[in-house]
Amino acid sequence: WAAASLAEVREIRSAFGGTVNDVVLAAVTRGFRDLLDSRGELSDGLVVRSLVPVSVRGRDEQGMITNRVSAVLANLPVGEPDPLRRLALLREEMDELKQTSQAVGAEVLTGMLGLAAPTLLALGSRAAFQLPQPLVQAVTTNVPGPRLPLFLLGRKLVRIYPYVPIGNNVRISVAIFSYLERFTFGITADYDAVPDVRVLARGIRRGLAELEDHPHG
Questions:
Q1: For the residues of the chain, what is the DSSP string, one character each?
Q2: In what order do the strands lie in the sheet with 69-76?
Q3: Beta bridge pairs of residue 3
C-alpha cells in the first residue's frame, strides 16, 4: 500500500502542469524505476508498458456515472532519471494518446453496462487479459471515489484501499483510489515474480516527495 494527500498531488500539478492522473502516473513510474534499479535491470530509455484506463466522456457528461471508458497503452519512462522530465514525458504521451484516440480495447470496456466506481477498478485488468499479452506488462488505473464521507452504522469510513486482480502475464497492477482528501495506492503482484513489491510501494511515495520538494520554476 501507499498513500498521498489530495493537496500534495494538486500542489505538484499546479507547480508543474498536467493532470492529477499525470502526477500519480509519474509517482508510479518512480516506483517501477526503483524496483528495476534494485534488481540491476534499469537502463537508459527503458519503459514499462502499462494499460491505463481513461475517460472518454464529453464535457457535458463530467461527473456522470456512465460506461464511456476506454484504455491506452502508456510507456512509463522508468529509464529517465530526472523527475520533472519523467512528468513532462508522461504528460506529452497521455495528451497525445487521448487527442489521437489511440485507445485499445474500447469494445471490451465500453460494452459493459452500469459501471460504478468500484467496478471501474477492475476494467484495466479485464481489458489487459483480452489483449496480446506481450503488449502489457502492468496495469495502472486511477479511479475517483466519493468526495463526501461514507458511514456504516454511525461509523465513518476513514480510508479505502483499492484492489485490482492480476492474471495471465500481467504480474503487477497498481490501483489508485481517491476518497475525501486522500489518495490510496493498492499494489497487487504475483509473489513468485515480484517478492520485492514493497520496493515499488516505497518508490511511489518517493516519486511524490521528490516532485513536491523540487524547486518550482
A1: -EEEEHHHHHHHHHHH-S-HHHHHHHHHHHHHHHHHHHTT---TT--EEEEEEEE---GGGTT---S-EEEEEEEE-TT---HHHHHHHHHHHHHHHHHTT---SHHHHHT--S--HHHHTTHHHHHHHTS-GGG-SEEEEEEE--SS--EETTEEP---------BTTB-EEEEEEEETTEEEEEEEE-TTT-TTHHHHHHHHHHHHHHHHHSPP-
A2: 2-5, 182-189, 172-179, 138-144, 48-55, 69-76
A3: 184
Specify whether the CB–CB gap between 189 and 197 falls below 8 A: yes
Query: Which distant-in-sequence residues (6+ apart) come within 8 Å of 104 by Cβ?
Result: 51, 70, 71, 72, 73, 127, 131
For the chain, how many residues are written? 217
Residue 131: pLDDT over 80: no
Q: Which three cell numbers stand for residue 157?
A: 469510513
Q: Round the average pLDDT of the chain to a whole number and report it.
A: 78
* Percent of the chain surpassing pLDDT 70: 72
d(CA 71, CA 125): 11
